Amino acid sequence: MNERLPTEGWEAWLQATAQTFEYPPTPAITAVVLSASQSQRRGGLPLRRRALALALLIVLLLGLWSVPQVRARVRAILRIGAVEILLPTTAPQPTPTLAPPSATPSPTVRPTVPPSPTIKTALQELAGATTLSDARRQLP
To answer: Which conformational region is residue 57 in: left (phi greater than 0), alpha (psi within -120 to 50 degrees), or beta?
Structure first.
């Protein structure tokens, strides 16, 4: 089990070579890095200009938020108050069918279409308040 692996001689040679290898000296870059970081700090906007830009942005956003159409559009996009009640548009009325023309004239008859209940009328019937006990009494 104590067989000598063929890579052991190579490892010893590599360690001996690494100990005699001369590494180059580390360059002094501290001054260069510090001067670069100092120049980057000076290049930004002054604090007063940043504060003024932020104040103008806030005033602009508040002005836009005061317009109801803009506020409604933002709420629709962000889905704030996600419960939406959409009332249906008026349903198309069915077209009346006419009898084929005959040789004898007949009095004009206008077909009547019964009005269909809409959600709007159903919502108007919901006026008032109820309690849980009243609702339970109405159940079968």
So the answer is: alpha
Distance separating alpha carbons of residues 137 and 140, to the nearest angstrom? 8
pLDDT on residue 9: 84
Highest mean pLDDT among 11-15, 48-52, 55-59, 69-73: 55-59
How far is 77 from 73, CA to CA, in rounded Å?
6
Token code pair at residue 95: 């077209």
Q: Are 93 and 113 in contact (CB under 8 A)?
A: yes
For residues 75 and 81, the answer to whether their CB atoms sit within 8 Å is: yes
Q: What is the DSSP letter of 33?
A: H
**Token pair belonging to 133:** 């006990």
Q: Dump pLDDT digits (tens) for 91-106.
A: 767 776 766 666 665 6
SS3 per residue for 23-62? CCCCCCCHHHHHHHHHHHHHCCCCHHHHHHHHHHHHHHHH
Report d(CA 51, CA 45) in Å as an integer.
Answer: 10
Distance CA 41, CA 39 (A): 5
